[in-house]
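Lab channel / #folding
Pinned by the channel admin:
"Please post every new chain as: sequence first, then the structure tokens as a reply. Keep commentary short and put observations after the output so the thread stays searchable."

First post following the new format, from NK:
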Amino acid sequence: MGKSETLAVAVAVAGQGRAYSGYRLRDLQNAAPTNLEILRTGPGTPMGEYMRRYWQPVCLSQELTDVPKAIRILHEDLVAFRDRQGNVGVLHRKCAHRGASLEFGIVQERGIRCCYHGWHFDVDGSLLEAPAEPPDTKLKDTVCQGAYPAFERDGLVFAYMGPADRRPEFPVFDGYVLPKGTRLIPFSNVFDCNWLQVYENQIDHYHTALLHNNMTVAGVDAKLADGATLQGGFGEMPIVDWHPTDDNNGMIFTAGRRLSDDEVWIRISQMGLPNWMQNAAIVAAAPQRHSGPAMSRWQVPVDDEHSIAFGWRHFNDEVDPEHRGREEECGVDKIDFLIGQTRHRPYEETQRVPGDYEAIVSQGPIALHGLEHPGRSDVGVYMCRSLLRDAVAGKAPPDPVRAKAEAGGGQTLPRYTSDSRLRIRRRTSREADSDVIRKAAHQVFAIMKECDELPVAQRRPHVLRRLDEIEASL
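Reply from TO:
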């Protein structure tokens, strides 16, 4: 059914009343997906080519052992390995000789050797040896194995799969290294659906007060209920605003919540195109005056109906002073917060206590945007889609994050992601109180933007000083 036909059916149904309309609406369930330019990520697609211009995580370092790791990223069958010199390779999976899979290859002191005829490739794809060929073979000058630049950082393996002349520097934010002693613990979560519906879930702050706070845990085991519930203020319906960055290469979303008659919590999260996200507190609400990110993640397409979240959980005494997080519970297809983040639960449990995984994947392998009925709470999701459409159409300006990263100078990039706890007294009316919380959120966001031009050492002192000024003014 085409888009015009879908709209025609919807209009017809609307004119016939809404009660017991299953028969009239049934054909809509088979509508063709819309927004395909941002949903499809194969080679040659607009979004696929856009994503390939960024460093993408492809597996965890712990998955690189003494044998190669078969992976599939952005519709491409690849193999990842670490040779015995410690160099990481990400190569096309099928050997350039006659197509045997390098997942059965033998990791060498330098590079990898195909199991079939012993062709030996370096991590850059160069053919080093072809044992069954004459010593003077010209194959080494004419044949190469498809390969992508790759490196490891804090337990994640990253690859660049785009054109060589557009390869960027990897952007390092100060939240990756600050405060001193921060530990970045890698994880992955596999999702059986399109990448975008998982990515959008992080933009939707409202579901935290509903899906993750006692809507579905009545009558279940207390430990299970506790594990499925976000604590420390997440149960409050947030006052949310979404802000495209000045360059339209991302989006910042602020969520303000009242914690008590005297305290307000401002939570800021940051989205960077095409598929990076950095979240503030996920264990408890703003445990200190001001803290940075709790999680950085990339939602990486496997193909159009499967994706993997790769990322780091941030562990430090600022973001989690009570040490509620569990480093040992992060890893391959597992993470330490909230039941319902992975596919590894009994079906009956998922029905009684559904989590993010169930809500996201149940939308289908590719969510049908044309059947949605958006409300005001969905502004951020639709803003994200609009930014992505503009980006793949070439309407976004050059990425300033890349420019700053490539300028170097030893400076990490400032982050907006943060939790701030402010002493602001409750106003007498609900409307007035909402207004003052929203105003505070906007002011905190403005403070974080002021750090763009400051050296690393001056950023946190500047934020703390300006938070005092906000409290005095409100």
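NK: The first helix runs from residue 3 to 14.
TO: also worth noting, The chain is about 25% helix and 25% strand.
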